[in-house]
Design brief:
This protein is an alpha/beta fold. The protein is about 40% helix and about 15% strand. It has a 6-stranded parallel beta sheet, sandwiched between helices.
Length: about 170
Amino acid sequence: MIHLYYGEGKGKTTAAAGQALRAAGNGMKVVFTQFLKGSISGEINILKNIEGIVILRNDRDMGFLKSMSGDEIKQVTEMHNNNFRKSIELIYGGKYDMLVLDEICAAYEMGVIDVKEVESFISSKPNQAEIILTGRNPADIFMESADYITEMCKIRHPFDKNVQARRGIEY
């Protein structure tokens, strides 16, 4: 089935990481792929040490898309497409039970991933795999294809008071 964690609120990646932990704890094999993220984060630090979980993400932190040059955006798009294709190969190989596509909604919306490949995969995903999608502003194809939909709704967040992201809490 397809799970979608979306919205403006905190917790989308945390929910996906929790689902990956639950799956691995039950002997399932997980591919956890992140888009638009390359910096160190607590969940990746621990997930990469768990047997049965493979992490795919950018090999370097390129910062925010809005501050990138055209050449840097091309590099990020290439990294995202490579990670997506490798994820799909692993899932279709049949040895993995779950695929997390963290921040796929934003990568799709911003055009820094091949949207046709993403649409093709979502439309014809393998039946044996659980797919977890996260991000803000999900495209219609994500909303229409999801079996589980959870919206994270921000009521209050310290960021609104200019409190910067805190290690161990937001990353």
